[in-house]
Design a protein that fits this description.
mainly alpha; 2 domains; 4 strands
Length: 88
């Protein structure tokens, strides 16, 4: 099986409880067959990976706006706590 080959080569074990099989343009019967082979769940797009939305098409600005807002908020806090106060 391909997964055990990967595990042997890399030295890490795949956690199938945390793994989803994602396919593009594959009929449902084939997807279910692959899921049985690899003993994992099936998933679908869009999904989030490390908090970043992923899709097989181009993401829209609305998809990324929450991440952009979060970064701007963190930068503002960083600037406020690390920049010395200046007398004007």
């Amino acid at each position: 099986m391909a997964s055990s080959f990967y595990e042997q080569m890399i030295g890490m074990k795949i956690n199938y409880d945390k793994s989803d099989l994602l396919t593009i343009g594959t009929d449902e019967e084939r997807v279910n067959e692959f899921a049985r082979i690899f003993c994992c769940k099936t998933g679908e797009f869009p999904l989030k990976y490390l908090g970043v939305p992923l899709h097989f098409t181009k993401l829209r600005r609305e998809d990324l706006q929450p991440i952009i807002d979060n970064i701007i908020k963190k930068i503002a806090r960083w600037k406020g706590s690390y920049c010395p106060m200046q007398d004007v």
